[in-house]
Amino acid sequence: MNQRYRTVLFVLLAGVILAFTFYALRPREPVYQGRRLSAWLRDMGLYPAKYRHDAEEAVRQIGTNSLPTLLKLLAAKDSFLKKLTLASLAKMHPLIRVDWPSAQDLHVRAMLAFHVLGPEAKAAIPALTDLLKHPETATYAARALMSIGPDAVLPLVRALTNENRIVRRTAAFGLGQIRSAETAVTLALVKSLKDADARVRHAAAESLRRTNEPDLVIPALLETLNDADSDVRREAMLSLAIFGSQAKEAVPALSQALYDTNSSVRFDAALALRQIDPQVVTVLAAKLEDTNSVVRSLTAEALRHFGQQASAAVPALLKALDDPDNDVRSKALVALREINPDEAVSFLMARLRDSDPEVRQKAAWMIRCFPQKALPALPLLSCLSSNDPDSKVRRAARRSLFFIQSSAKAKPAEK
Q1: Please, are residues 220 and 193 in contact by the beta-carbon 8 Å criterion?
Q2: Residue 131 and residue 135: Cα distance in Å, rounded?
């Protein structure tokens, strides 16, 4: 029995000695204001903001001395036993808290610290480039490189061909944030517009708007307007819009996109056209006469997004208020509300006096779409609601009268 106790005691003693040796020989972490770097890093994502700001200041003060520790944290891996233990702890009572961060937690902390250091951390570029080769650390390494800035352009360009699609996407996004003026970067991003992953293509299209080489970028984005993914097409449109009139060759394709089945695509196409060639309004106004009611409706919808820049289309939109299709009339009303509500109200007030009861009825219904601008019409609506010989006109006038008056009373309350 004594022999057994001696063996157990020996094993425990050996464990204590090994633990002490490991503690004594481990790499020393930098210290700031009496706290180790890893302790400060725990506060990087905390709220209230004071803790986070204090942690960021600690990282700045420690500076490049923090790089060995940060790189070690970025390379951290969870053993099977640790994963199992963390999963078990997560299932325990929520009041039980154990400060044993996962590898992902450590990666995030290190990444945030690199963001604080910025270009000062450029000495870590070779090690970060090596971490790009490993799927479990590649994303965080790419984001750390992005934080360093122009010195990290080359490894990020190389990362655009990484096997990990998330790394490629992060690299494409990061190159846009760095805003490098190098032609090689622009060409690499243009090539990424053909990536097999839609999110990579999306990130490349977004980053290309931050380049200053329209001769290379615009034709590539123009081709991307045919992408199978609607989000990629939308991002290409928004990037083309940044180039303004330089992207006029995209006007035909963008005009066609106004009739896309996807409403978000139509919206972004209108915004892009507004930036690139607002004179296209005159062409769109003519389409309000199209024989296809869907075309007329979508045209009115598109004109709305031009706002006051579509003033040339007001006469055509006023005419569209008599369109036989209800959807066309509704969208023309909404467009007029955005473009020139004063003119629309004057037009409808004149119609409230029309000899045709059907015209008066429609005008009474429509004028409620301009509650604040239609206040001058209240006396006329009040008269129609009581005295018009047509019951449908009286009903429409009463409802619009109530709606406009209620809106006028509610407006002060909103302030």
Answers
A1: yes
A2: 8
| Tokens 């006329």 -> residue | 380
Alpha-helical segments (H) within 179-257: 183-192, 198-208, 214-224, 230-242, 251-257
Q: For residues 194 and 201, is the Cβ–Cβ distance under 8 A?
A: yes
Using alpha carbons, select from 353, 387, 388 the residue that is nearest to residue 367: 353
The whole-angstrom separation of Cα 94 and Cα 379 is: 65
pLDDT in tens, 370-394: 988 989 999 999 999 999 999 999 9
Amino acid at 23: Y
336-339 contacts, C-beta under 8 A, 24 or more apart: 337/369, 337/370, 338/304, 338/305, 338/307, 339/303, 339/304, 339/306, 339/307, 339/308, 339/310, 339/311, 339/313, 339/314
Query: Rounded to the nearest 5°, which phi and psi values hold at 121?
Result: -95, 15
CA distance 277 to 255: 10
Contacts 24+ apart (CB under 8 A), 214-218: 214/243, 214/246, 214/247, 216/183, 216/186, 216/187, 216/190, 217/186, 217/190, 217/243, 218/243, 218/246, 218/247, 218/249, 218/250
| Residues counted in the chain | 415
**Threshold 0.85, pTM exceeds:** no
What the block records as the tokens of 78 is 């969870």
